[in-house]
Design goal:
It is built from 14 helices and five strands. The protein has 404 residues and is mainly α. The protein has two domains: 258 residues, no CATH class; 131 residues. The strands form two sheets. A three-stranded antiparallel sheet has the order 1-2-3, with helices on one face. A two-stranded antiparallel ribbon has the order 4-5.
Length: 404
């Protein structure tokens, strides 16, 4: 007889405790907080039940992600109740996108033959964004559709992985116009990165580049190609750091935010103050001052979590990502060489690098880049596309039933 395993019971308990604390924090008591907590718990348990009882692959992927979403919604409700409600709505849409993506990837044949269709779709989205896009924070990377904003680069991350996987899983010695295809693929990858640079999305362009380098190292090791790419990034990064004002500001702020603490260094210094104020165990939900950090609901939500849930809470977040990446790598390792193995590896790498970049930025380990923390930060396009990527990884795991 099938029964629920302990992780989902622990998740329900954490939901009860977290939203219960948030409920008692508010004066007067607001029962809407309990409704939000109940809604996210029901959605999580229902989706987990379907995955578990229908044997839809690795059951732990969704549990890990749901824990991250829960912590994000708790903090968003604490910061701005309406943001929490909106995020639960996006969570529902994201779960629907998860199922749709799972079904499409699981049951569509010959996806590895659509290499140049993927490339064309990515370029088309970039061109549409450049022509019709809206600038936010100096980056022209948003589209407004029926009054809602959407960030196409989030979807292009998935397309980029699918595109590269088509090459890495095929004949890597193939020539096009008497040129080895690996150099054509490299040029295509730089087309994507070039569009991001034009949009002033240096953080996501770094994510794309590192993903491409890692996949090249794993599946198509070539010293010459790696050396060329290394030279390109060194030259491009140096030129950007010396000529582009916003890159100069980010580097100078990273090196010494205290020199202009009231202006350019305000965001990162407030982040560091919040993390330090939380100590090991945190000040408690609702007892901190995370609202002092600009963009705390998106880029700096990790700092808010550390302030109110402590450094141990922040470490718990990091460990959840570690476990998720471990599950993704395990799925890839158990697969035979081929398209699914490349896609599983690519998606896992995307999540791992993006998490490192944003957490590294808010703790001043590396310069700030302005990207979101997967599954935790507020944002519809980010949450939905993350669940789309999760749906692909879930579909791949279901083919081999990776549950150990």
């Amino acid at each position: 007889m099938l029964s629920f395993k302990r992780p989902v019971n622990m998740l329900v308990l954490i939901n009860i405790l977290s939203f219960g604390l948030l409920f008692f924090y508010r004066e007067p008591l607001d029962y809407n907080v309990l409704y939000v907590g109940g809604a996210i718990t029901v959605l999580t348990v229902l989706t987990y039940s379907i995955i578990y009882f229908a044997h839809l692959g690795d059951e732990y992927l969704f549990i890990i992600v749901s824990m991250l979403v829960t912590l994000g919604v708790v903090m968003l409700c604490r910061l701005n109740y309406m943001l929490g409600i909106k995020q639960v709505g996006w969570y529902l849409i994201a779960i629907c996108a998860f199922y749709i993506t799972f079904a499409l990837y699981r049951y569509t044949k010959n996806l590895e033959g659509l290499k140049w269709i993927y490339f064309g779709a990515g370029v088309a989205l970039f061109l549409i964004t450049l022509i019709f896009g809206k600038s936010v924070g100096g980056a022209r990377n948003w589209l407004v559709i029926m009054g809602r904003t959407f960030q196409p680069s989030e979807l292009i991350k998935i397309i980029f992985v699918l595109f590269l996987s088509c090459y890495f899983s095929g004949d890597r010695n193939k020539k096009i116009f008497n040129i080895n295809e690996r150099y054509i693929i490299a040029a295509a990858a730089y087309v994507y990165i070039g569009f991001l640079v034009i949009q002033r999305e240096w953080g996501i362009s770094l994510l794309f580049f590192i993903t491409y380098i890692i996949l090249t190292y794993i599946f198509d090791f070539d010293w010459l190609l790696l050396l060329i790419n290394g030279l390109f990034i060194m030259i491009g990064g140096t030129i950007g750091a010396l000529t582009l004002y916003h890159i100069k500001v980010r580097i100078s702020t990273w090196l010494n935010p205290w020199s202009d603490i009231a202006n350019k260094g305000y965001q990162i210094t407030q982040s560091l103050f919040a993390i330090a104020a939380g100590g090991f165990f945190g000040r408690g939900i609702g007892l901190g001052s995370p609202q002092l950090i600009p963009e705390v609901h998106s880029d700096f939500i990790f700092s808010a979590i550390c302030e109110e849930m402590g450094i141990f809470g922040g470490i718990a977040i990091i460990l959840l990502y570690f476990i998720f990446v471990y599950r993704g790598i395990k799925i890839a390792l158990l697969l035979p060489d081929g398209y699914d193995k490349c896609v599983a590896t690519g998606i896992t790498v995307i999540f791992a690098i993006q998490t490192f970049i944003i957490i590294g930025g808010v703790i001043k380990l590396i310069p700030l880049t302005g990207i979101t923390l997967p599954f935790v930060s507020y944002g519809g396009s980010s949450l939905v596309t993350c669940f789309m990527a999760l749906g692909i990884l879930q579909a791949i795991s279901s083919k081999k039933q990776v549950n150990a």
